Amino acid sequence: MALKQDKQLKLYYSIREVAEMFGVNESLIRYWEKEFPDIAPKRAGGKIRQYTKEDVESIRQVYYLVKEKGMTLAGAKQQMKQNKEGVRNTTELVKRLKQIRDELVSIRKELDYLT
């Protein structure tokens, strides 16, 4: 799922916002946090998680490997350990392609409306 434009300007995201971005439960985000050291949100007041853009991108990579490619957590960990740059590049490419698809669908709807 793509980030909303206004959310790209934020410095920190709540766990609820991050979970909504990916359509998953907050508990899954907390679980991934324990399993993947790259997901390390700041803690405000000791308990409230504050996710940076980098944390969100790490979550996007885990989401892609586990939810979209169907890998196990062990497989995703191994993939990220062995080829972190490749995983990052692939998830960025998938993100861009989804944005292009959304734009094309929007254009098609407008063209259908005109005819």
From TrEMBL:
<dbReference type="Pfam" id="PF13411">
    <property type="entry name" value="MerR_1"/>
</dbReference>
<keyword id="KW-0238">DNA-binding</keyword>
<feature type="domain" description="HTH merR-type">
    <location>
        <begin position="12"/>
        <end position="82"/>
    </location>
</feature>
<dbReference type="InterPro" id="IPR047057">
    <property type="entry name" value="MerR_fam"/>
</dbReference>
<dbReference type="InterPro" id="IPR000551">
    <property type="entry name" value="MerR-type_HTH_dom"/>
</dbReference>
<dbReference type="InterPro" id="IPR009061">
    <property type="entry name" value="DNA-bd_dom_put_sf"/>
</dbReference>
<protein>
    <submittedName>
        <fullName>MerR family transcriptional regulator</fullName>
    </submittedName>
</protein>
